[in-house]
Amino acid sequence: MNESPGFLLPPGLVAEALSGFSVPDSVRIARLKDGLSVLELFHGETLAFKDLAMSCTVHFLNYFLRKDGSRAVVLVGTSGDTGGSAVRSARSLPGLDVLVVFPRGRITAVQEKHMTSCLEDNVHVFAADGSSDDIDRPLRRLFSDQNLVRTHSLMSLNSVNWSRVMIQVAHFFYAYLELSGLGAEPGPEAEPEPGAEPEPGAEPEPGAEPEPGAGPGPEPGALPELEVVVPTGGAGNITAAFIAVRMGLPLKLVAMVNANDIVHRTVTSGDFSMAPSVTQTLAPAIDIQDPYNMERIFWLLLDRDGAVVKTMMEEFQRSHRLRLPENQRRLLAQVLVTGAVSDPEILETMRRCWEQNRYLLCPHTAVAVWHHYHRTHKAGRNRCYVATASPAKFQAAVEKAGLTFDPPEAVLALDQLPTRYQNLERSADWCKDWEERLRDWIQFVSRTRKEGGVCYPQSP
Question: According to the UniProt entry, which residue ranges have a biased composition of type Acidic residues (predicted)?
Fold first, then answer.
């Protein structure tokens, strides 16, 4: 490493962070029929891709806190997966307290239990009566209070934290090297269910729309392209993929969304505006109407013009709507293809993938894989579909698709665990009320730690 000695990380820190993953490389690729390759990023403790970057980020943070003899308070809003990953990565770390706010009734029971069953004294979970976008509003106000941030060393583990996005860039280099045949050695593959009979590859649906650029393969001598299809909500993962492209990786990027289609509308029509409300879908982790990582994509596209992007985002935060000029929209459409998938299409994709491959998709991964079945693909170009979570977290969606599976023991065990959380009720002035409740708790936690006390005296 060539960094300044003050920023060197000790050898083995990343390996330690990833030591709890259930497969040797922490990720693996399932190579299915008809060129359907699924990048499985869900082999961490909470069965979601957030575990990869989160575990590394928390280990980095803990290393520097211990080195400085300091503490920090982390504030996290979640649409489902980030909160559980943050809690499980940080619980019991002596220099870190984690406050997580999740949208009550809008996530699965497994996602909720991954947060509420952590009873360590440094874990503080709040259930809010609203959407994840609602949760972001008081959190933004708290982070904008610089005195609060400095006094309590307040920080975020959402993907606004650059470390999260930086580590996710590695996902796409791994996928590219494995699927282009340029890796040093083949990575482990996930096999379809035993007994699945090989059959001819499925062709796209009649009338399927061609992808931009579909046609002949790459020029002789050129690095092979890889098409990467990412289920997209807050746009952190697709931002990491775009950064990989800027680093020289020959990727063609596709962002697939559910009914919360702001990213799709932005690319196709320049309409970067929130819908009146967040639509609850079968893919709750991407039920987001405020994809704040789009700010990073705008900044990279517009030659890193911070002043222009600042004006754009201030207008968006003020009015919840922004119309991209056509020249900016065309720039975006040149680097990003999008599509939107309905709940019935999610279920149809889950069933179809199971019938053809005996391979079970989570509903978010199905949002991406829908593209495999319904778009015409460029000859000679490999494709990779990002699996962001295990189907074990979304049993209701699996059952709704008419499929069955046996949840792993770790998931079944969650039902037997005690829980602890606090409620943030919906009031007439809910945003201000939530902000004050969270501010009071941040101050209480900091005061308690300075006094050497505990926050939950009755906890086991």
Answer: 188-208
